[in-house]
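Q: Convert this sequence to structure tokens.
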Amino acid sequence: MHPVLFTIFGRDIPTYGVCIAVGLILCGITFYLLVKKKGMPEAVFEDYLTAALIGIAAGFAFAYIYQGFYNLIAGKGFTFGGLTFMGGLIGGIVGGVGSAFILVKDKKRRQAFWDVLDIAMPCIFIAHACGRVGCFFAGCCYGKVVDDGGLFGVEFLYGNGADGNLRYPTQLFEALFLFAMFLVGVAVNLRFKKRGYAISIYAISYGIWRFLIEYLRDDYRGGVEGAALSPSQIQSIIFVAAGVGIIFLVYFLRKKGKILQEIDWTEELEKEAEEKEEKKRKKEEKKAQRSTVSYEEYNDSVEEAEKELKKEEKAEIEAREETEKAEIEAEIGDKAENGGN
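A:
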């Protein structure tokens, strides 16, 4: 385990935080590349990126307070502390989707909502995968004790699981699953033509995975002692149900014509290309103008230097002529004086 990645200016930089940051960066890159690969204009990326950033902020806020609800259910009172992925996901979905409906005004870009939701599937997977790697380094979200040591037993040196026992590295199990689903999500977006279904794959696949991995988890996640299911398992069932519900909803909306088979972005892409070409042309004009001005200034400076040089040469010639004249006059004066003698 390595909870602190490095120290800068006397401050410890947690590995978990760096992993989260890397995950968010990869999430943004994936989002941008898939928008471009699907042939959508950059305006779609810009509109929904704003909504996504609001969703991320809401997700972090809700992830922070969500643990308080777990503690309240467990009879420990509503206390803050820690981040929970389930809380972050719920807060992020509510914040991102809600802000998208408010911020995206263009009718055609609004129709791209289901495309963006599809693209969100691998984006969430890659960000979550990096976060789980951070969990491993931080020593949280650990697994149960491996009784016989086993092939997968890991001794955690930090966190509540650092008790000298070998435990399942459930964080790495989940990270591998999430990385694999990230690749599946990218493939689905690039190959699957029917819009709106990818996010249901996320809800169902992660819901099932989380339900099963909970049986290996041993860290405190709230809930009532002795209950058959943990809060995360109950939420996983809801996730699966929501995923199935989305499939039926999308099917119904497609039948009603509310979700188009494909959006024609030709006009928007041509306009975007023209605007880029215009910006490029203006940039080149300014560059050429600056180059022309610089060239003219250079010529002026050369001409000025030549004038100064000519003045100096003329002054030298005049000085030399004056000297020669003075020498001649002195010589004539000497001859006249000698002749008089």
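Strands lie at 4-8, 11-14, 154-155, 166-167.
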